[in-house]
């Protein structure tokens, strides 16, 4: 047993992300004796996920103590890590973020991390994030804010600039890229590794190698990609052939940042499929809670790495993280220092340390710099609750192709999001 700690998990009522976190936390005994406090404002969802956590904790022999509360301040008292997966009225507002710009001729792939949707996700989310971190300043000022909520880059950037709380983001995008590369090349997942840098959802794989021998697998990728199924990630492959490196993490996420991102055929989120999957997952969870067996895959880590970060921090294990969203501060030297980037990192008791792999290739850096400016402006608009800055952020975004459309969608989305927009500093 290592050192014990207290972890507050905000948004624990989320079935999909809650399950992913539980799979990580309960797949080893590295955190035995530590307390995991589940926090959610929905009492039914919270009760369901607490019962699932207790079952998985027991069967996984993780040896953790499970608590729950609707009061985040109670959870923060004495916490070492606060994990965050909250979103405000996620599906309803996300639909507005996508459909209103489309009404005015703005083509987004998802409307979540880039484009007008990314702006308004930022506008309504940052006030809540700063409410959370102000509570942390009072109750657990030395705790790490570990973020999983979108828009990842903008949340980490805002906190890095305006909050004393230590923060970082985690995303499984690099593993999605590795999966795609293994799929095309026919390599085993366990035999490969990727080293990537860039922005969240806009990482570029500088290295794709055999984990054991160090063999460079890019020549194999270049040989096999032209003859591979043309329906598989056509936009990522187009960018790969233009720039020479594989981008992360998928056509729809990467396409959010580019004026031509929809050329991969990805436009919008399948809300109906999402709703069906949630119903199916709820039925599966309820079956388990009625005494059914845990699915075998639930007994294994899903790779979100919450457990790895906490274990590194409290037990000083010196863990390597394939990627983390952190303030740049020179890690990627040809991107601005005051920007959130996604790079490899080391974690230990001294904190989270970004690993520099040098600069991005210059043409890719030029693409990333456009989005860097959009993200910086969006954060300023949200932090200052400024409609003027919000319009300027829209006009800097390559997805926005009309100033008249920008003004119209800004007015409409501002009214919808008005209950959540307020100054943060």
Automatic annotation (TrEMBL):
Q: Which residues bind substrate?
A: 150
> Which cofactor names does the annotation list?
Mn(2+); NAD(+)
Domain of life, per UniProt, equals: Bacteria
Keywords on record:
Carbohydrate metabolism, Cobalt, Glycosidase, Hydrolase, Iron, Manganese, Metal-binding, NAD, Nickel
Q: How is the cofactor bound?
A: Binds 1 NAD(+) per subunit.
Query: Which residues of this UniProt protein bind Mn(2+)?
Result: 171, 201
Q: Which Pfam families match?
A: Glyco_hydro_4 (PF02056), Glyco_hydro_4C (PF11975)
Protein name as catalogued? Alpha-galactosidase/6-phospho-beta-glucosidase
Query: Of which family is this protein a member?
Result: Belongs to the glycosyl hydrolase 4 family.
Recall the GO molecular function terms of this protein's record: hydrolase activity, hydrolyzing O-glycosyl compounds; metal ion binding; oxidoreductase activity, acting on the CH-OH group of donors, NAD or NADP as acceptor
User: Annotated site (Increases basicity of active site Tyr), which positions?
Assistant: 112
Domain Glycosyl hydrolase family 4 C-terminal stretches = 197-400
Q: Extract the InterPro entries matched here.
A: GH4_Enzyme_sf (IPR053715), Glyco_hydro_4 (IPR001088), Glyco_hydro_4_C (IPR022616), Lactate_DH/Glyco_Ohase_4_C (IPR015955), NAD(P)-bd_dom_sf (IPR036291)
Native source organism of the sequence: Paramagnetospirillum caucaseum
- Gene Ontology terms: biological process: carbohydrate metabolic process
């Amino acid at each position: 047993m290592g050192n014990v700690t207290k972890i507050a998990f905000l948004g624990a009522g989320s079935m999909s992300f809650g399950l992913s976190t539980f799979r990580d936390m309960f797949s080893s005994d590295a955190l035995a004796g530590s307390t995991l406090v589940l926090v959610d404002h929905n009492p039914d969802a919270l009760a369901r996920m607490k019962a699932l956590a207790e079952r998985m904790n027991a069967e996984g022999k993780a040896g953790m103590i499970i608590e729950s509360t609707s009061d985040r301040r109670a959870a923060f008292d004495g916490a070492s890590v606060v994990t965050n997966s909250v979103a405000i009225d996620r599906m309803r507002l996300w639909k507005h973020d996508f459909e209103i710009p489309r009404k005015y001729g703005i083509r987004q792939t998802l409307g979540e991390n880039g484009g007008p949707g990314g702006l308004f996700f930022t506008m309504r989310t940052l006030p809540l994030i700063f409410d959370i971190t102000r509570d942390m300043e009072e109750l657990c000022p030395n705790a790490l804010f570990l973020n999983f909520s979108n828009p990842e880059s903008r949340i980490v950037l805002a906190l890095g600039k305006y909050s004393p709380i230590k923060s970082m983001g985690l995303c499984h995008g690099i593993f999605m890229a590795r999966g795609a590369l293994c799929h095309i090349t026919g390599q085993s997942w366990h035999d490969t590794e990727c080293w990537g840098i860039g922005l969240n959802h806009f990482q570029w794989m500088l290295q794709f190698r055999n984990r054991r021998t160090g063999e460079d697998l890019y020549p194999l990728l270049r040989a096999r990609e032209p003859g591979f199924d043309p329906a598989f990630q056509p936009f990522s492959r187009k960018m790969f052939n233009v720039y020479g490196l594989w981008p992360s993490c998928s056509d729809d996420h990467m396409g959010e940042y580019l004026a031509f991102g929809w050329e991969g055929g990805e436009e919008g989120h399948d809300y109906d499929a999402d709703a069906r999957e949630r119903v199916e997952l709820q039925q599966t969870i309820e079956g388990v809670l009625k005494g059914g067996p845990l699915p075998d895959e639930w007994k294994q880590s899903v790779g979100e790495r919450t457990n790895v970060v906490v274990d590194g921090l409290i037990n000083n294990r010196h863990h390597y993280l394939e990627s983390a969203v952190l303030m740049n501060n020179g890690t990627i030297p040809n991107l601005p220092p005051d920007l959130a980037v996604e790079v490899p990192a080391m974690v230990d008791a001294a904190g989270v340390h970004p690993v520099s792999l040098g600069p991005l290739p210059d043409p890719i850096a030029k693409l990333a710099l456009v989005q860097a400016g959009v993200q910086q402006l969006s954060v300023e608009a949200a932090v200052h609750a400024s409609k003027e800055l919000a319009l300027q952020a829209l006009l800097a975004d390559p997805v926005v192709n009309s100033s008249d459309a920008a003004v119209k969608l800004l007015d409409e989305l501002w009214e919808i999001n008005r209950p959540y927009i307020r100054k943060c500093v």
